[in-house]
Amino acid sequence: MLTAYDKPLPVIDEDSKGYWEHARAHRLSVQVCRACRHRHFPPTPVCPACLSDAQSWEPVSGHGTLVSWVTFHRAYWTAFRDDLPYHVCLVQLDGGPLVVGNFVGDIPQNAAMGMPMKVQFDDVTPEISLAKFVPA
Amino acid sequence: MNPMQDLSNRVAVVGVGNTRYGDFPDVSDYALGAQAFKLALDDCGLEKNAVDGLLTCRVPFYAHMGEILGLNPRWTMTLPGHGRMSGMAITEAMLALETGAANYVALIYTNIGRSRRMNYGGDEFATFWDPWGLTSPGASHGLMFRMHMERYGTTTRQLGEVSVAFRNNAILNPDAVMRKPITLDDHATARRIVEPLGLLDYCLVNDGAVCMILTTRERAADLNKPPVLISGVGARDAFERSAIGNFDQEFWYDEVREAGTNAYEMAGVTHDDIDALMCYDNFTPTVLFSLEGLGFCERGEAGAFVQNGALGLNGRLPTNTDGGHLSNSYMQGWALNVEAVRQLRGECGARQVADCEVVQYVAATPCTRSIIYTKG
């Protein structure tokens, strides 16, 4: 029996449901407007470009480039305390929006802005898989 | 041309007041607000019941504030406790006075975040990114500063120059919370919070309240203190790129440039005329972003610009002469606007900028604002 996962879990709603379904199947996806093809993330109830509410979740390659990263030495949630220091990274997806993730493991050697990255999912609960990143 | 050009020099700040700053678990935000209001009234000599405009910021309930102060305004507005709101609030009050919606506006800001143990992250500010552990405005500024380091070679030691300069200014300010001298090495060895940022890159969190009273230039002539005029304002928001709170890949460069340019044009000055800068400093990197956006240096060169005490009282650009949010007080822009007024009145004692005639306020945020004040 696994110990209960006590870090923050996503609030899944009508707008984000599609993202988390893809994530559970280890597919990274972005929200795409069916009217104007605008791609955006995180989810919004209407397309920020044309205001259409006809939107869908489309898988992307999971490849991108490293934009930035930080290391937390403070736990704003108790459940992160044992992970300190932990890292958060920003990745610009190829042809798509900016996403937040964690490195799988430590900060990659020679980490630098522009470093090619690819997604790797972490199944943190039976329902939730988080997108994390490793050098491509 | 700034479309608000005609409003230049028509509205004045006539009264300012601030409470003590610190940790006051037994004092309510309303009590602090009332204290600041009374101090600002005393400062200008205005009769309380002449106040017919009330703007509250970070006050839980505007009507209760008005009840406590015994006010029945004909113009009331309330804004949330975000740092970006101070410049917006002052601009709104200027518009209300110009249109005749009010004759005397009191702007009251209160903050009890210290004594009530606010964390500025975690469950207080739930976002889509919580599962990855990304939280807090400080982390967003850490992400931006990492990008500045990667793009331009800026160093954390250059951030230390900002911390040390503002601390040195605070030492000359009797109201300031932090007055113990610090060195660049202290900055470098301070506890890391969200790396690349450490404790001395973060603003303080303290209780306190600030009040400003504004009126028209004509009415200002009848009050106690020499009026300080609002000569220029500029504004640009960047909500479209705000999916990560308090973060922008371009550090709001275009927005700061536009807000600054509009304020300079409206005031009829350039950045060369600025005698002191009051720069929103929630975190040290924000100061670098502001200096670049306003054109005090080229893009990417703010790290070099701030070296050798450039932002100190005797530096090339005296900045946050009260110590700013880093060392004076976390009044979310309000205390900086009050400091601008006091500098132009010549009331700053040991920290007075010589021959101070033009002071600029700027807040580089998703709602960027700049205000230029001049001597009336």
Explain how this protein is built:
The complex is a heterodimer of chains A (136) and B (376). Chain A is mainly β. Chain A folds into two domains: 12-59, no CATH class; 61-136, OB fold (Dihydrolipoamide Acetyltransferase, E2P). Chain A has one helix at residues 17-24; strands at 29-33, 39-40, 55-59, 63-72, 86-93, 98-103, 116-123, 129-135. In chain A, the strands form two sheets. In chain A, strands 4-5-6-8-7 form a five-stranded mixed barrel. Chain A has a three-stranded antiparallel β-sheet with strand order 2-1-3. The longest helix of chain A is centred in the N-terminal third of the chain and has 8 residues, at 17-24. The relative contact order of chain A is 0.20. Chain B is of the alpha/beta class. Chain B has a single domain, classed as Thiolase/Chalcone synthase (Peroxisomal Thiolase, Chain A, domain 1, 3-Layer(aba) Sandwich), CATH 3.40.47.10. In chain B, helix 2 (62-69) links the parallel strand 2 (53-57) and strand 3. Chain B is globular, with a radius of gyration of 19 Å. Chain B starts with 10 loop residues before the first strand and ends with a strand. Strand 4 of chain A pairs antiparallel with strand 5 (192-195) of chain B.
Record keyword descriptors for this entry.
A: 136 residues; mainly beta; 2 domains; five-stranded mixed barrel; globular; B: 376 residues; alpha/beta; nine-stranded mixed sheet; two-stranded antiparallel ribbon; 12 helices; 11 strands
How many β-strands of chain A, per DSSP? 8
Give the oligomer, counting copies of the same chain as homo and different chains as hetero: heterodimer
Strand order of the largest sheet of chain B: 3-2-4-7-1-8-11-10-9
Reading the helices and strands of chain A in chain order gives HEEEEEEEE
Q: Summarize the main sheet of chain A.
A: 5 strands, mixed, barrel
Q: Could you say which structural class the secondary elements and strand pairing of chain B correspond to?
A: alpha/beta
Q: What shape does the CA trace of chain A take?
A: globular
The appropriate CATH architecture of chain B is: 3-Layer(aba) Sandwich
